[in-house]
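To whoever is on call:

I kicked off a structure prediction for a single chain this morning and the downstream step that reads the tokens threw a length-mismatch warning. I double-checked the sequence; it's 335 residues and nothing unusual in it as far as I can see. Pasting both halves so you can look.
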Amino acid sequence: MPLYRPVKIGSLELPGNLFLAPVAGYTDRAFRTICAELGADFTYTELASAEALTRNSSRTMMMLKRGESGKPYAVQLFGADPDAVYRAVLLLAALKPEAVDINSGCPALKVVKTGAGAALMKDPALLGRVVEAAANASVKALGGVPVTVKLRSGWDWEHINYRDCARAAVEAGAALVCLHPRTRAQGYGGRSDWSHIADLAAGLSVPVAGSGDLYSPEDAGRMLRETGCAAVMFARGAMGNPFIFALTKEYLDKGEWTPPDYAVRFAAAFRQLELLASDIGEKAACLEMRKQFCAYTKGIGCRAGLTGGARLRDRLVHAETISDYRVILGEQRGE
């Protein structure tokens, strides 16, 4: 079986298995659009509070809109109250996402202190009720689009319960489980334990997606081979490198890949900036894109044509207008 292959998630059929994971502060509509245009087969929104959605739906709805590519995407929600999750999913009818994801892995204090995110894994039965509420609301308002779940390995190494949580989620109606095999206590430190992904992939009746320590096409190929997972979700590995999807497909098909050059990288960055400015205004977009432009100057995709990256980043973090970015990048290229 080829490593790059279609994935079926409940009633949803996707042409490939390279996904953009939900990442708070990064996977806004602009970045999801860029990733979809550059090869991502499926994208997830950054996590949104179910409670916030029911209280102030117009503001939260803006961050959950479909990207301009029009490709399939999932809205990710967090919440520990099944009733609030049910009501929030009903509100997604206007967006028509292809799936709804329940976040059961976020380690951030502001999320877990509400009982949501990774804290849901402390109570698999409650997790099941949250998933069931989302699935019921999906049937009522979204035509029954699949519900997916993103988990961690457990709260800490003394409480590794991803099997119990995955089982509870699937029994409640989850059509795919994504596992980031770190504990909440680890945060994003240390190494992820891919053997947990392999364990779930071998034991669940629904597709399993793997996440964690995916920074290159080779990493994705290794995860697919070693774990038997149905799909991979790039998170931090896609930040500033939306090309990773196309590069990974190239690697999985041909065994090699060629990094994009400097001009291609920053053409994508400027398109992302312009998309974001159309959503939130130039001033806010330019502030938000400082970290994004810095990310575009790092990583595997910078092997071609970029020198003086640290000096460039020092200048980028002071850009305030689209014109500022163009001047800084133009001077870097000697224009």
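Update from on-call: the warning came from a stale cache, not from the record. Cleared it. Sanity check on the structure: Residues 300-305 have pLDDT under 50 and may be disordered.
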